[in-house]
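F.,

This is the one I mentioned.
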């Protein structure tokens, strides 16, 4: 063996490719026709509806046993049967079959070049933002999730990465924030918690004119309703703890790259930072994602009814929901999304009234998080946006009386009756 070939043979699978696949083409050749590489699965499913892709995603059948579920490979390391022919997986931080099945799954659903699974949504966002370097400047939607705000203002700021927060419903404000050192645009649409709408296509087109990287947090819509890669966005991020997992039993984050070049960068960051998702949680997330369509449809139908009911009440100061006819940016949202989602925010007028309601409701969880089978009622000033200073929060429309309702699978009439009794002063 030549020195050149020997050096090549000593590379691990994760060094040879940005994203090692769960089954090699050679393995797929000897498997039944429904067992395919992720690339072949994507090609075979390209004309199928999204709900079909949720069930048939290329790894739904184990090629070794025919099992109807992705196996949980509870292993940290993998044996080298031949030191000159390293295995596809060598160490679980770099890659594992269970996590790989999940990563191929989300990449298929988002239409990307590579998907990556992390230990939490913030781990995914943190890794993606590590693409940027000291001296870089980012433009970020002003009412971004509180955890992202904390990361940008207290951690990345120490690394000399600058951030300007703008109202992204106004493209002119985005353009005005451009600096010579601007390198990226971070979007969230609908935003959390006021559900402001950003025109993904318009912002992305402008960003490309200036060679800016675009990122979007797609947690609220999921790829079931919104696929930002189709609008040209470079990196898609998810707190998969929420709607993708759907059962309040797994903590996870996902990132999807639009191009192979960005996939290489995300893979290096995932492996280098080590904030990866374990096999048990990867399996739980795969299981949850299979029912995404059914859950989103049911929860959205209920959310629309809830938003309408709230909007007709005189004792509610404001209601935020893209499905309402008077919601700012509704036309833009309908252009880029197939649905309105299952999160409704509303302002009851004061902190005192909000806290009284939280202590009186009986059905929804009063908790952090969203997107589960059970409804979750949150108080952003104390929960999701506690890291945001009050004066900043108020400037961004997140008032002391604001509540965020993530509608679950309960009967909506029961949820409304519960809210009605809780709203009685």
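My design for it:
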């Amino acid at each position: 063996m030549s020195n050149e070939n020997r050096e090549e043979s000593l590379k691990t699978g994760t060094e040879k490719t940005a994203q090692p696949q769960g089954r090699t083409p050679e393995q797929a050749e000897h498997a039944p026709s429904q067992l395919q590489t992720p690339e072949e699965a994507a090609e075979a499913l390209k004309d199928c509806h999204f709900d079909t892709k949720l069930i048939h995603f290329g790894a739904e059948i184990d090629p070794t046993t025919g099992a109807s579920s992705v196996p949980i490979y509870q292993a940290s390391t993998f044996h080298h049967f031949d030191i000159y022919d390293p295995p596809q997986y060598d160490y679980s931080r770099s890659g594992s079959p269970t996590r790989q099945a999940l990563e191929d799954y989300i990449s298929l659903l988002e239409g990307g070049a590579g998907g990556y699974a992390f230990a939490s949504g913030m781990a995914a966002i943190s890794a993606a933002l590590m693409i940027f370097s000291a001296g870089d400047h980012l433009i970020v939607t002003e009412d971004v999730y509180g955890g992202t705000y904390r990361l940008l203002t207290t951690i990345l700021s120490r690394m000399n990465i600058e951030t300007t927060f703008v109202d992204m419903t106004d493209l002119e404000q985005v353009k005005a924030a451009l600096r010579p050192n601007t390198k990226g645009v971070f979007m969230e649409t609908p935003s959390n918690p006021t559900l402001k709408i950003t025109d993904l296509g318009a912002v992305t087109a402008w960003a490309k004119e200036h060679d800016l990287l675009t990122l979007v947090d797609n947690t609220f819509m999921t790829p079931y309703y919104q696929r930002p890669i189709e609008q040209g966005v470079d990196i898609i991020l998810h707190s998969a703890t929420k709607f993708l997992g759907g059962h309040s039993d797994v903590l996870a984050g996902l990132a999807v790259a639009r191009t192979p070049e960005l996939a290489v960068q995300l893979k290096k960051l995932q492996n280098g930072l080590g904030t990866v998702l374990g096999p048990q949680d990867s399996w739980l997330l795969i299981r949850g994602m299979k029912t995404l369509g059914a859950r989103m449809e049911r929860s959205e139908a209920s959310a629309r009814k809830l938003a309408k009911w709230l909007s007709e009440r005189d004792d509610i100061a404001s209601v935020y929901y893209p499905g309402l006819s008077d919601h700012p940016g509704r036309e833009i949202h309908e252009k880029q999304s197939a649905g309105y989602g299952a999160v409704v925010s509303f302002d009851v007028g004061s902190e005192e009234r909000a806290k009284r309601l939280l202590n009186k409701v009986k059905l929804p969880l009063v908790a952090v998080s969203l997107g589960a089978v059970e409804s979750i009622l949150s108080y952003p000033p104390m929960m999701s946006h506690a890291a945001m200073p009050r004066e900043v929060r108020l400037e961004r429309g997140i008032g002391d009386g604001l509540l965020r309702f993530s509608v679950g699978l309960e009967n909506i009439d029961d949820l409304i009756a519960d809210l009605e009794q809780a709203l009685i002063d």
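Confidence is low (pLDDT under 50) at residues 5-23, 30-35.

Talk soon.
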